[in-house]
Amino acid sequence: MTENKTVRANAKCPICGKPRVAEHAPFCSKRCRDRDLLQWLGDGYALPGAPAAQNPDSEIYPQDD
Asked: What is the pLDDT of residues 2-30, one digit of tens each?
């Protein structure tokens, strides 16, 4: 079975807007792919929602006193 490496002709990289490359889809390069990964790892992307509790349950998260 052959691997399909086609990319839409008008598809653009979500990071820089350059044309996508099949090898790094949906990005244009390894650099843009890595920049996106760093955004995820650094909490650069977030979904709206209720704020997390400030004082977690002490039975679940014991404090080191």
From this structure: 454 555 668 999 999 999 999 999 999 99
- Distance in angstroms (rounded) separating the CA atoms of residues 36 and 24: 12
Query: pTM to 2 decimals?
Result: 0.58
CA distance 58 to 63: 7
Residue 46 CA to its chain's centroid (Å)? 10
Cα torsion 4, 36, 38, 42 to 10°: value is: -130
Q: Whole-angstrom Cα distance, residue 12 to residue 3?
A: 21
Please state, in angstroms and rounded to a whole number, the distance separating the CA atoms of residues 33 and 39: 10
Cβ–Cβ < 8 Å for 7, 25: yes
Residue whose entry in the numeric block shows the structure tokens 């979904």: 47
